[in-house]
Design goal:
heterodimer; A: globular; B: mainly beta; five-stranded antiparallel sheet; globular
Chain lengths: 114, 110
């Protein structure tokens, strides 16, 4: 396994369901991110973790709950979502101390909320 | 906060040159990224400019003017595989706070 891996790739859930998105990076990076990508909208930064500590929460509703048990794994727990939360959720990692801060993205989890 | 603007769509001919512009307004600006995203795929890093000027990397070049809040991505000798969305993104307040524009969807035609 190389790079950034996200599972599941596709998820359909009802508004009362609870589900989780998983991200794993094999790059030895120490920062991980969740981004939301909706049609015709910019990529929106949701959360940033550095060395397992959350350093950024971009005013994300509490129905999205991140978890970072170690520098290689990142989860996004979902509950009581709304149809407008349907989007592509991208995980990324970077080497926090590297000057360019280049982001390495996973393929994304396509979420549909019914 | 940050505001990043770029054209929504562009069309160019195979073998030609295309320039994708990006303007930004941001506080605490560090540098400017360009990413490429093919349909249904993850964005991939193209370039990062911190200093004013042009940086060339093969067929792709990126330019930054900090005083004008302006950047462009230049693609030469266009190939069909260059059809993709090109995302302009600015970093501020630390390298990890990266804000993206809506992306420019480039279509390369024969």
């Amino acid at each position: 396994e190389t790079g950034v891996t996200q599972t599941p790739r596709h998820l359909v859930m009802g508004m009362t369901n609870k589900k989780s998105l998983k991200c794993e990076q094999h790059l030895g990076h120490n920062a991980m991110y969740w981004y939301k990508q909706s049609a015709k909208k910019p990529l929106e930064l949701m959360f940033v973790y550095n060395f397992k500590e959350q350093t950024e929460n971009n005013s994300v509703p509490s129905r999205f709950s991140p978890e970072c048990p170690n520098s290689s794994h990142l989860f996004l727990h979902l509950h009581t979502l709304q149809p407008e939360d349907s989007a592509l959720y991208l995980c990324a990692s970077s080497q926090a101390s590297y000057p360019t801060g280049e982001l390495f993205f996973g393929e994304g989890s396509r979420l549909t909320v019914l | 906060g940050q505001n990043i603007d770029q054209p929504t769509e562009m069309t160019a001919t195979e073998g030609a040159i295309v320039q994708i512009n990006c303007t930004y307004q941001t506080s605490g600006f560090n540098g400017l990224f360009w990413y490429q995203q093919h349909a249904g795929e993850a964005p991939t890093f193209l370039s990062y400019n911190v200093l004013d000027g042009l940086e060339e990397k093969g067929r792709f070049s990126s330019f930054l003017s900090r005083s004008k809040g302006y950047s462009y991505l230049l693609l030469k000798e266009l190939q069909m595989k260059d059809s993709a969305s090109y995302l302009c993104a600015g970093s501020s307040g630390g390298y990890q706070k990266v804000t993206f524009g809506t992306g420019t969807k480039l279509q390369v035609i024969p």
